[in-house]
Amino acid sequence: MAFHMRLQTKLLVVVSVLVLGVVLVTSGLVTYSQKKRATESTYRLMERDARYLSRRISHNIYNSNWRTIQITLDMALQSNGDMLYYAIHDKDDRILFSSDTKSVGTWQPGCIAEAPQSEESVRYRSNEFTVRELPLSEPVAYKGAPRGAKGEVVFDTCMKVSYIGRPIGCLRVGYSTRELSAHIQKSATDVLAGGAAILLTVIPGLLILIRISIAPLGRLNRNLLLLRKRAETESIGKVLGSVDIDEISDGSTTTEIRELSLSFGALSGMLVENWQQLEAQQYNLEMNVTRRTGALRKANRALLREIAEKKEAEEKLRVKNSLMEALHDTTLDLMRHLEFNELLELLLRRAGGLMSMESGYYFEYRESTRQLYPIVTSGRFEEVPKLPTRIGEGLVGRVWETDRPLYVEDYKTWSGRVKGHPGLESLGASVAVPIRLEGNVGGVMGLAQFGDEFEMEETAMGVLARFAELASIALNNAMMHSKLQGELDERRRVEKEKDRLFQHLLQAQKLEAIGTLAGGIAHDINNLLMAVQGNISLIMSLTSPGDIVHKRGGKIEELVASGSALTSQLLGFARGGRYHVRPESVNTVVKSSLSMFGRTRKGIMISESLAEWLPNVEIDRTQMEQVLLNLYLNASHAMPDGGRIRIETGMTDLDDKLAAAFNLKSGAYVTVAVSDTGVGMDKSTQSKIFDPFFTTREMGRGTGLGLASAYGIVKNHKGAITVTSEKGRGACFTIHLPATAKPCWEDEASPLAIHSGEGTVLVVDDEPEIREVVKTMLKGLGYLCLEAENSSQCVSVYREKARDIDLVLLDVVMPDAGGDIAYQAMKKINPEVRVILCSGYSLEGRAEKMIEAGCNGFIQKPFTMEVLSTEIHRVMEG
Ligand SMILES: Nc1ncnc2c1ncn2[C@@H]1O[C@H](COP(=O)(O)OP(=O)(O)OP(=O)(O)O)[C@@H](O)[C@H]1O
Ligand SMILES: [Mg+2]
User: Fold this and answer.
1) What spacing in Å lies between the alpha carbon of 182 and ligand 2's midpoint?
2) Ligand 1, atom 11, residue with closest C-alpha
3) Cα 189-195-199 angle, rounded to 5 deg
4) Per-residue confidence (pLDDT) for residue 361, from 0 to 100
5) Which parts pass through the membrane (predicted)?
């Protein structure tokens, strides 16, 4: 029994181990192949995912649209729970952007512990895609929800990103390995469960089989045991003799052994049959799988073809779209630039970026030479000599001629190239497009690649042509803008000029009005002074120099002289009085004015620089001296603690523009500049200094008439006086006087003295005091006197006594009619009538005309006995 049991157990164990082994090996193989298949499919899924993302963001990386990239990748992160993090590297593996903002600028997203360069960690590698297995150094979460724990192994993938065929970086995405692990684990469990099920069904069957098969052996064993027991008590022979084999074998021994062998045979047969069935099933299975796989492969191939075609179409569309997008962005930017050359440079840069071509140029067509000239270049063309191109010559000339874009794959071997053009020996791919300006081809824009091989995208040519159209619009805009700007500037200039002229007019009108007033006042004061002066002259002639009355009279004469100086300032300002205009040398006037001013003033140094060979100017010397004296005086007032005055003369030619600035006619002018090192003036003071009565001097010190009178006098000489000054840095007054070719006037003025005479003088004046005093003065000189109080009386007296009257002393302005009317009437009576004009006004207007009409002389009121007698003497003797 024990033997039977042991045998049975041993057999059971051996067979079970064999079956178990077969089951385990099969399960292992199945599990391994399933794991491999699942892993590869996961890699491919990740690759597809990463490729899709990289394409979507490549254009945005190129244009640094980080916001769009972030939205795209965050959406992917949100929709794919296995995606843990992302990062974008540039070509040099620097991180440009990542889901983990802390890590920007470092190699690693913060959650990755191991350096990804380690080759041991690489699990999968294709042309553009790499997968590594790396542990997380920090937990990863998205929107608060944990996605990966610290230490968890992840797939760290890297997909190359290209833009228009050029690598620009890599998109790095981390995926969780959990799903794959779970999948593998589940398949292993399934296989093991299958194995266990097989074992559980096969082992009981085996047990029964073994039991049946070894039952005869058991019985044999039992009989043998019986024999052994009997042999212990009986002799061997007896035992053997008594052993009936049939009895030992229980009568069935041979059959049982046969059955045993049969059973073994059946068992092995069964095993063989089972094995064959298994093999058949496996074969069937494999055949099925092969059949199915074949069909699947076929379908897969078709699908792959379809996908490839679709991808190609998508790729083309994507390139076109990204070019169009870039074109759109570029165009918006271009339209904002309005400076033509600046815009051209920008166009070249943008077109180069769009086409990924490094160098560019713009040729402008010039009608004068009928050639094209490079006016803007970029990249390697900067080093190429800038030579003009003829129409039809080379790429540029042809594009201009045909008005169509042209692409040359390799310029250096192209038959149409300009031979011998230095610098173009290594010029490769080149493209040029016409640029239309104001409806015609105005120039040619080109892009090129030196050296490197370059292949232009199919769609790029169309985009470049579109770009050229937009560039033409932008350039036309810029041209229009510059034209409008020019017109606007011109309009502004005209407006400004108008404004300036208006201001001049206002100033002139203002001065005119004040001038008339000042002239009237000066006239009245001069009449008063005349009465005083006349009486004093009489007193002086009646008294001897030692007499006290004579001395007082002298004082009064001095006061009248300064009163007269004041009225002459007023008259000067009133633009009156170019009494004796003669061609003079400005240098002479400067010298005489300086000697009057006196060179020795306390602390003031005077220097002069007088130009030689200056043309003369037509001036009233006395007035011009008065102007210069005013300037010297002002300069000395501006330098209370001393300083320098410099007088310079020179000559200048004013063209139309310059002359307009001075409000003068163009031509040759003599200049006198008086500069000082005094306190100077700010702009506000400068704008008022020529106004009458403007003064900054303390009350009672200045009248504010000096410069107003200088202005009036210079203006009256058809000249201009201007000032340049800065506060604290002195002032410089410049006078422009029109030059004349006339030679200098030789002065033959006789010295002033009292000249007695004889004859009859008709004194005409509306002021009785003046008539009275002049008559007395004339009588004192030896003349007989007649008088008239207005024009008509003058004419009737003259008509009556023309033969007796030797000279008429005629006032110019009288209430009834002017002296000019009386003069004309007297001239009709006697064309030889001798008339000396006598006026409180200066020699201007009427008086000047009367002199021109033939009057013999002019005396400015108030006048002294010397002046009166000298003038009468000159006229009577002449
Ligand atoms: N060389 C100068 N430097 C600084 N300020 C000057 C100069 N010349 C003129 N000015 C300014 O111009 C003002 C007007 O000068 P203007 O000669 O008309 O009058 P005034 O000198 O003040 O008085 P007046 O000439 O009657 O004595 C002066 O008060 C002074 O403020
Ligand atoms: Mg002054």
Assistant:
1) 108
2) 689
3) 140
4) 93
5) 191-214
Cα-to-centroid distance, 4 and ligand 2 (Å)? 155
Pairing between β-strand 616-620 and β-strand 153-163 as defined by DSSP bridges? unpaired
Starting at the edge strand that comes first in sequence, how are the strands of the sheet with 835-839 ordered? 784-788, 760-764, 807-811, 835-839, 857-860
Please check whether the two domains, 2-161+169-185 and 335-456, share a CATH topology.
yes
Q: Which residues contact 188 (CB under 8 A, 6 or more apart)?
A: 27, 31, 35
Per residue in 530-545, pLDDT tens?
Answer: 889 888 888 888 888 8
CA–centroid distance, 704 to ligand 1, in Å, is 7
Beta-strand pair 760-764/807-811:
parallel
Is the C-beta atom of 708 inside 6 A of ligand 1? Answer: yes
Residue 429 CA to residue 394 CA, distance in Å, equals: 14
pLDDT digit string, tens, across residues 766-807: 988 899 889 999 998 999 999 999 999 999 999 999 899 999
Q: Helix (H, G, I), strand (E, B), or coil: what is residue 346?
A: helix
* Residue 269: per-residue pLDDT: 58
How close is the Cα of 530 to the center of ligand 2, in Å? 26
Quick check: CB of 791 below 6 Å from ligand 1? no
Q: 636, 602 in Cβ contact below 8 A?
A: no
Give 801-838 pLDDT, tens digit per residue: 989 999 999 998 888 788 889 999 999 999 999 999 98
Distance 590 CA to ligand 2 centre (A): 18
Q: Report the CATH fold assignment for 2-161+169-185.
A: Beta-Lactamase (3.30.450)
State if residue 704 touches ligand 1 by the CB under 6 angstroms criterion: yes
Question: What is the end-to-end Cα distance of the chain in Å, rounded?
Answer: 191
Please work out whether the CB of residue 681 comes within 6 Å of at least one atom of ligand 1. yes
pLDDT digits (tens, 9 = 90+) for 72-120: 888 888 878 888 888 888 877 777 777 764 443 343 555 554 444 567 7
Q: What percent of the chain has pLDDT over 70?
A: 85
Contact (CB, 8 A) for 571 and 840:
no
Mean pLDDT of 255-276: 58
Fold observed for domain 586-740: Heat Shock Protein 90 (3.30.565)
DSSP code for 601: B
Question: Does residue 609 carry a pLDDT above 90?
Answer: yes
Q: In the prediction, which pLDDT does 244 show?
A: 46
Q: Is the CB of 587 under 6 A from ligand 1?
A: no
**Predicted confidence (pLDDT) at residue 601 exceeds the cutoff of 80:** no
**Ligand 1 within 6 A of 432 CB?**
no
Pocket test for ligand 1, best of 636, 641, 675, 695 (most atoms within 8 A of CB): 695
> CB of 694 closer than 6 A to ligand 1?
yes
- CA 176 to ligand 2 centroid distance, Å: 97
CA–CA distance, 318 with 162 (Å, rounded to integer): 12
Q: Is the pLDDT at 393 greater than 80, yes or no?
A: yes
As a CATH number, domain 335-456 is 3.30.450.40
Tell me, using a 6 A CB cutoff, whether residue 696 lines ligand 1.
Answer: yes
Q: Whose CA is nearest to atom 1 of ligand 1?
A: 635
What is the reported pLDDT for 512?
A: 73
Task: Identify the residue whose C-alpha is closest to ligand 1 atom 26.
Answer: 703
- Mapping DSSP to helix (H, G, I), strand (E, B) and coil, where does residue 162 land? strand
Of the listed ligands, the closest to the CA of 690 is 1
Domain boundaries, given as residue ranges, for the chain: 2-161+169-185, 335-456, 586-740, 760-877
Query: Thinking of the domain 760-877, which architecture would CATH place it in?
Result: 3-Layer(aba) Sandwich (3.40)
Q: Return the exposure string of 523-541: e unless at least 16 CB atoms fall within 10 Å of the residue's CB, then b.
A: bebbbbbbbbbbbbbbbbe
More confident residue, 96 or 399: 399
Q: Which of 601, 628, 634, 701 to probe ligand 1 with, by most ligand atoms within 8 A of CB?
A: 634
